[in-house]
Amino acid sequence: MVRAGSLSNHGRPQPRRPTMADVAREAGVALRTVSRFVNGDATVGEDFADRIRRAIETLDWQPDERARQLRSGRTRTIGAAVRNISDAHPVLRAVDESARAAGLTVVAMSTEDDEEREREAVVSMCRRRMDGIIIEPIAENHGYLQPEIDSGMPVVAFDRPATGVEVDTVLSDNRGGIALAFEHLVRQGHRRIGYIGDDERIYTGHERAVAFHECLRAHCSAATGMVHPGPIDPARIAAALNRLRSDPEPATAILTGNASTTVAVIRQLGGDFGSIALVGFDDFALADLLRPGLTVVAQGEAEIGRTAIDLFQARAADPSRPVQTVTVPTTLIPRGSGELAP
Amino acid sequence: MVRAGSLSNHGRPQPRRPTMADVAREAGVALRTVSRFVNGDATVGEDFADRIRRAIETLDWQPDERARQLRSGRTRTIGAAVRNISDAHPVLRAVDESARAAGLTVVAMSTEDDEEREREAVVSMCRRRMDGIIIEPIAENHGYLQPEIDSGMPVVAFDRPATGVEVDTVLSDNRGGIALAFEHLVRQGHRRIGYIGDDERIYTGHERAVAFHECLRAHCSAATGMVHPGPIDPARIAAALNRLRSDPEPATAILTGNASTTVAVIRQLGGDFGSIALVGFDDFALADLLRPGLTVVAQGEAEIGRTAIDLFQARAADPSRPVQTVTVPTTLIPRGSGELAP
DNA sequence: GTGAAAGCGCTAACAT
DNA sequence: ATGTTAGCGCTTTCAC
């Protein structure tokens, strides 16, 4: 039922939104004066300012960002192409907060770890003429970004490097993180440590697996390790886990290469979680609620996000500056699962 | 170091991005013809189409969304003002997917549960002249939305109703959900059931607390209940929990009013989790990994998101249609914690 | 089907 | 300090 209450305007012909010209007319000043007042370009006579203020109030005028952006050439907006905007994403949070502080709006789009979606997101950002792009790269090759970069679009990659183009990049210290975890387990007395990680074709999967091998070499007199990298899939995780535990000399500790793998392993261990030491790469919400609490290598997501914005700003300010890659350290957070004796 | 490689264009003066006029010139056709070809407004001669395609390719032209939106008056974009875009948000995901399917782009902004931030987000959406707004309301009063609604902006609220304005709304069946949980516990034989929930000044906190009271009345011969609603704060949770357990006839089961409270309670119970039956309102990631698994009342987030987009579309198609509120059912997911005997 | 002109709402250059 | 004029890049009349 439609009522003709004062609360509702439904059904009435929609009044055209007021424009800056309407404000100027209402205030009895020139359009340009309104613009100057609104943008603070120059000081405006106090009486004029008052009339403009009142006119804006009366008409309930709001500037049209589209027109403003079109005319001025800048959007004060940067795009963030991330895996999934609907999942928890501490980096995105930091990007958003840092950008806000700099007076920039962040528009985030999901890539769903899909090359096609990533390109769609980037294209959409370019068509909106955003001032820059922050990307968590998924595509095999980012050559498609080259024309955009050449036409002056600042691009910053994080988490993984973008391949085929030279862009500013923020990465976690993947190798250092694995070393932290490995040495922690060695210190607890573990000598047979297994690794289950992500597909090695993925950058972080590769880095972490390589780092694990390096750790094995460095500690070779003490530790024997097993690596089972590959796609994250329950069956594969189960198989890897089985091999690690059914070995004549079974693993006494497991290192997992990312949060999804960690969760999959815990799920697989079921009631046996806590019977074998476990350290996961990546912290996640509620990891402390598990019994035992999950020991993890935490990435510096907040710093990664902040750095991404810093790099964007530096690039925007000086397009000719050399491309830079920043590595953000990781930290070990002991919560119990990594402190179990062999 | 700046190198003059073919990969990099840094330092060169930025070539102006090509415009549609450039494409027209390159193709040797009128501007209007390019526009028609690009938008499929009308059929364009095949030879012309070819030349335009080639010209677009050559110049690597991409339409300027700002100009297009300014001129056409529509943005094909809707804003989503949600608590936090960086936390997991299943509703936002569904909103995004549904909108994509309808050819709309969703721009999500965080309100951080802050009135000021909510208004900032809404203002930003209006200034961008988005086609509609999906909002998870936090403000005490949403009267400030009225002018926008009057000027034809479709607004859809979800999770909580917007106060002071009449807008299409999607809500969870909060009362039904509490009843589901309560009756489940009664069926397990519990007769003393405690409730710890959110601040009653918050809509969902209120609804769920009221529903709990109704359940108590309906089962009064069987169950005695305790309610301890208030802000989510570890000390308060601890106190509430203490009272429930130190009663002469202590509670044998607890019902929590939302995910944050559930997590706070589990954290507080520590090793005692599993010694008392617990059902939480709201499902969350990893709830199944706890020992025992957490029994929850799950909201239909995907349906809420889809419905929000449906309501938006209906409103956009017919601004005079009556305002509608849709209630989405909840489901009980037993995982162990709610199936413990008294 | 195609083309010329107007204009979306605003800011940037010049006047004054 | 204020007003006038142009024009951002596109879509939309309206002629042909």
TrEMBL record, chains A, B:
Annotated region described as Disordered, given as residue ranges: 1-20
Q: Where is the signal peptide?
A: none
User: What keywords sit in the KW lines?
Assistant: DNA-binding, Transcription, Transcription regulation
Q: Where is the composition biased (Polar residues)?
A: 1-11
Domain named HTH lacI-type is located at 18-72
**PROSITE patterns on file:** HTH_LACI_2
InterPro entries assigned to the protein according to its UniProt record, in alphabetical order: HTH_LacI, LacI/GalR-like_sensor, Lambda_DNA-bd_dom_sf, Peripla_BP_I
Keyword DNA-binding appears in the UniProt entry: yes
Q: Does the keyword Transcription regulation apply?
A: yes
Molecular function, one GO term: DNA-binding transcription factor activity
Spell out the protein name for this chain: LacI family transcriptional regulator
List the lineage, top down: Bacteria, Bacillati, Actinomycetota, Actinomycetes, Micromonosporales
